[in-house]
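Hey team,

Filing this mostly as a record. A colleague (T.K.) asked me to run one chain through the structure pipeline before their review meeting, and I want the input and output archived in the tracker in case anyone asks later how it was produced. No errors, nothing strange. Just documentation.

Input sequence:
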Amino acid sequence: MKNSAYKKDNSDSIYYNSVEDIKSYAAKINEERKKRDSFASQEVDVHKYVFSPEGWENFVLICYIILIPYIVGVLFLFVFIAEVAFEKFLLLDMSSIIIVWAIGYEVIAATLLFGIFVSFLSYLIQSKSTTQANNPYKARR
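Output structure:
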């Protein structure tokens, strides 16, 4: 009986080879992950989103920061608070420019955060499908 316990059979060698294959595949995947950029390390080009003449980027960006949230705030108040009735909209006190700007800012911030979240999910799905396509052990599962 002692001899059979120390004897290597074919199933042990298959298991050992499989473990070695899994370890080599894990090392290969880790190397690829180190090479690949993460979602947070992607480069963002502001010139894609800020439409302005050459040399006027700072001025146009300041105008965007001031005007766009105010316009979005006014539209939000008109659509959701005044229920698209111009008579109700005129009853609103629009003298508080900062409050209207803050409402628009929050609407834009929530929209941008939602867009970033959707972009992150699409990045994860894309990277997962790429990883699965490169997996040589996919058929074994």
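Quick notes for T.K.: Residues 1-7 have pLDDT under 50 and may be disordered. The radius of gyration is 29 Å.
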